[in-house]
Amino acid sequence: MQLNFENETILITGATRGIGEQIANDLYLLGATLILTGTKPKEIEKLNVLATKNAQRKKYFCVDFSDERSLDLFLNELHAFERIDCLINNAGINRLNTIDNAEILDWNEMLSVNLTAPFKLIKNVSEKMIENNYGRILNVASIFSKISKERRSVYSATKFGLHGLTVGVSNDLARHNILVNSISPGFVLTELTKKNLSVSEMDDLKNQVPARRLGTVQDISKVALFLISNLNQYLTGQNIIVDGGFTNV
């Protein structure tokens, strides 16, 4: 059995770095046509120039998911696509703070990016999927959709919510041959992890993970590709935790 995404159009948010970028690169090599988002205008412009120059099956959009107008403009852009076979809600933000120091601005922005944007995208894109009687939706959550720790209360609230959205939507869409799951990465070596954790903290984490290492973006992408592929015909409404065993100890 081989993965093949030829003739499929796949939308991935937060696809210019980290896990999203890796999934996008892997899908491109497997034949997919990609709709990708990022937040830096100059970077998006350069990526689109490069994609056009090399005749790549990629189109980048600059979207700020914390800005309702920016998101709504992007949703209007999506009407130009005849079909979208798969949606991967990967974009997310994480601002660490104890609850007594948490800012309402952080709450509102994390809620907008991590939960409201996926809701709106699913609502929009699923209409095309229902018409085509096919679709795959993958929400990138976090191990903090199952557990939490200090300074993660707001982040956990959004990720618990994202898994709840996954389960609810999966029940609505399964009859249309649309499978909806979430994937929850553990501690993965990305820019976000390096921003939030010191070198010594990352070393300490390695010793807490049964696999004795932090995850890689490749570890997450491999699982994601199965979940959104034709090889997955019956798994829906699930939260797949990819953490080297961390949440089990």
Entry summary:
With 249 residues, the protein is of the alpha/beta class.
- Report the CATH topology name: Rossmann fold
- Main sheet, how many strands, which sense, barrel? 7 strands, parallel
Integer-rounded radius of gyration: 18 Å
Q: Based on the coordinates given, report the CATH architecture.
A: 3-Layer(aba) Sandwich
Secondary structure: number of strands: 7
Q: How many angstroms separate the termini? A: 34 Å
Choose one word for the global shape: globular
Tell me the CATH superfamily.
NAD(P)-binding Rossmann-like Domain
Strands side by side in the biggest sheet:
3-2-1-4-5-6-7
Helix content, binned percent: 40-55%
Strand content: 5-15%
Order of helices and strands: EHEHEHEHEHEHHHE
**Class from secondary-structure proportions:** alpha/beta
Q: What is the mean pLDDT?
A: 96
Q: Class in CATH?
A: Alpha Beta
Number of helices: 8
Low-confidence segments, given as residue ranges, are none
The tally of structural domains comes to: 1
Secondary-structure map with pairings?
Layout: E1 9-12, H1 18-29, E2 33-38, H2 41-53, E3 58-62, H3 68-77, E4 86-89, H4 104-132, E5 135-140, H5 153-173, E6 178-185, H6 191-196, H7 199-208, H8 217-227, E7 239-242
Parallel strand pairs: 1-2, 1-4, 2-3, 4-5, 5-6, 6-7
Helix pairs in contact: 1-8, 4-5
